[in-house]
TrEMBL record:
Principal EC category: transferase
The organism of origin for this protein: Aegilops tauschii subsp. strangulata
A cellular component term, taken from the record's GO annotations: chloroplast stroma
Superkingdom: Eukaryota
One GO term of the biological process aspect: lysine biosynthetic process via diaminopimelate
A family per Pfam: ACT_9
Biological or metabolic pathway of the protein: Amino-acid biosynthesis; L-methionine biosynthesis via de novo pathway
Protein name stated in the entry: aspartate kinase
One MF term in the entry's GO annotations: ATP binding
Length: 166
């Protein structure tokens, strides 16, 4: 995951195009994107990077190129946990997901959701990914049984064909 920060992007046109042209020039695919007024966070497609021999050199090259236009922080060993399905009720889904993740002590580092509301992706540390999927599966599909009254939501989510993916 890369955090790309620049106050120069505030009110500018073409800044995102510059960032993504660097990825294009280096042949690197981006998975998830989250933006704010002065920052962009992206996760990189591991099948396009980590299957190669010169992993760290490529990552260093990406950072070097991006640092010409912004401050860049590389966060390695991250995983994407996706909630996939009809997520029209995204506020309820996120509320329940974050309740579960807070309870197990997991810090979400990035959230990405497209306008189609087909899926929501959460970026977490690799070491927490399996625990996240297990806890979210328990909460959404089996009822979390913690007595907080949210078990009633499980049926709604099942009806929407929500699924978890790592």
């Amino acid at each position: 995951m890369l955090d790309i920060v620049s106050t120069r992007m505030l009110g500018q046109f073409g800044f995102l195009a510059k960032v993504f042209s660097i990825f294009e020039d280096l042949g690197i695919s981006v998975d998830c994107v989250a933006t704010s007024e002065v920052s962009i966070s992206v996760s990189l497609d591991p099948s396009k990077i980590w299957s190669r021999e010169l992993i760290q050199q490529e990552l260093d090259h990406v950072v070097e190129e991006l640092e010409k236009i912004a401050f860049v922080h590389l966060l390695q060993q991250r995983a994407i946990v996706s909630l996939i399905g009809n997520v029209r009720k995204s506020s309820l889904i996120l509320e329940k997901a974050f309740h579960v993740l807070r309870r197990i002590g997991v810090n979400v580092q990035m959230i990405s959701q497209g306008a189609s509301k087909v899926n929501m992706s959460l970026i977490v540390h690799d070491s927490e990914a399996k625990l996240c999927v297990e806890a979210l599966h328990q909460a959404f599909f089996e009822g979390d049984g913690d007595g907080d009254g949210d078990d009633r939501l499980t049926a709604e989510f099942d009806e929407e064909n929500l699924r978890l993916e790592l």
